Amino acid sequence: MCGIVGAVAQRNVVPILIEGLRRLEYRGYDSAGIAILNGAMERVRSVGRVSDLEARAREMRAIAPTGIAHTRWATHGGVSEKNAHPHFSSRDGVEVSVVHNGIIENHEALRARLLEAGYQFVSDTDTEVIAHLLHSHVASGLKLFEAMQQTVRELAGAYAIAAIHVGEPHTVVGSRRGSPLLLGVGQSNAEGSENFLASDTSALLQVTRRVAYLEDGDVVRIGTDGYAIVDRDGRPAHRPIVESQLSADSIELGQYQHYMQKEIFEQPGAIANTLEMVTNASSVSAGLFGAEAEEVFARTKHILILACGTSWHAGLVAKYWLEAIAGIPVSVEIASEYRYRDSVALPKTLVITVSQSGETADTLAALQHATTIGLRDSLSICNVPESALVRQSRLRFLTRAGPEIGVASTKAFTTQLTVLFVLTLVLARQRRRLSAAREKELLAQLRHLPAAMNHVLECEGAVRHWANRFAPKQHALFLGRGVHYPIAQEGALKLKEITYIHAEAYAAGELKHGPLALVDRDMPVVVVAPNDSLIEKLKSNLQEVRARGGELFVFADRDTLIEDQHHQPRGSRGVAVADPARGAAAAAGVSRGAGARDGCG
Ligand code: M6R
After folding, report:
1. What pTM, to 2 d.p., does this model score?
2. 481, 577, 579, 590 — which has fewest CB within 10 A?
3. Measured from the CB, is residue 355 less than 6 Å from ligand 1?
4. Residue 133 to residues 3, 105, 142, 406, Cα–Cα distance (Å)
């Protein structure tokens, strides 16, 4: 994923820019670059690591008080130096340079217009249109700050941008919509101040903890004389400066090989932190979700969950819980679909957004769309307190997973599930569908979750063994039933995202309706099989896989393990995992019984 750093100071900012990029490396990238102002505009770009960029900057003896920097994850145009940011636009003595995260949706129309105006394009990126557009406004006589305001009025899509202009050597400007950008306020003395921009706080911890989160539509100017912000309507805007609580330790790798491993092992602690407010309670209360929650929940007749990716999977799990335990009808929609769909707004709907970052453009737009069509009760379940989603929601519950550095979501997902389960209990209590005794029992199971998860993590060795067998595979199927079907979906997403192995998830009962045709000895089939009310049904599905010679990888409770090992035919890869003292999620597996279609196929 892309990253941005910008800096203006009385000192050389090149090491700050490079260190900022290094701290954003965890987000993944394929190329990197910096542009600096030191009398002239200079640029260094490199395909590959930030360390390569650093070496090239050192060779060039790059030194400057002003600059912008970027790590790119290719979206428009392949991975090459010409497509790496910063992008330049230079003509008639005006020279600007731009870095950009996000996607400009109207880039083709803008490109056609700019070509007609005589601009030449040297990259395949959508970002280059921003550089030329900005150039055209500076060339028409506007200062860089005003030119940026004019430029973003013409852009459609999601973006965070930073830019410099050779004619304003102590200025960096930026803007954001749908993609994060924050301002960092550095030290100041009689000679002036230093100020920064970044797409992520972690890039700035090296120079400051004092940050202001820009809002959608904001345009910002930073200089050695301070900073200025205007909102989407061009009015001066005040964004509070807050002290970032992000600790340097929380973003260190420590004993782990990579961040995803670290964050998988942080799950028990993250869940315990998230549950802190209910640790000693024998009952949960609506107040956990905000002062207005009692009133909002009392009038709620339906729930609409909006999210993307992993967070959407958390929403899909919650639907099973909320309908079965709290008795509330729930729809779960992919935010990028919902925002563009003509949907029917059911009165008395509570809109729940689920997001790790709270800055996902589609989720934010989906929430705004819901508000526009009259759904005003909103609850955000989010990991970032200062995020746009939290700010825009009436109610909130913060997951306390800590920074999720790995791009693949892990502890954010399990803490989201934890909060969604707490919500289920609150709503079930309020609707008198849960006795005090049952609530106490479920709460006890919820509190046992961190310990149960620690047991599961002891299976790392067995899972590593499986991973070796998986490595040469091209495809995989994931199966689950009931509440574990979305878990299977999440598993398939993780495998695709991290290993580039093609994976699909199916509700196990669907296997015989088509996908079984894919199963043969080369197709690993991963099954999520805790011992719940659907386990016998699931075992029939496993027989179907075995009959076709498929290789099974089954995640089961230990008691199921013993039984299954006795019945395991040669060729099955075996069964692993899980804590006999099952956690709340498994214990609350709420799906019931057989479908009428069993036996066909
Ligand atoms: O920050 P969000 O939870 O809103 O992000 C939504 C998705 O992009 C995210 O969950 C993504 O699917 C995961 N990082 C994948 O592991």
Report:
1. 0.75
2. 590
3. yes
4. 22, 15, 12, 34
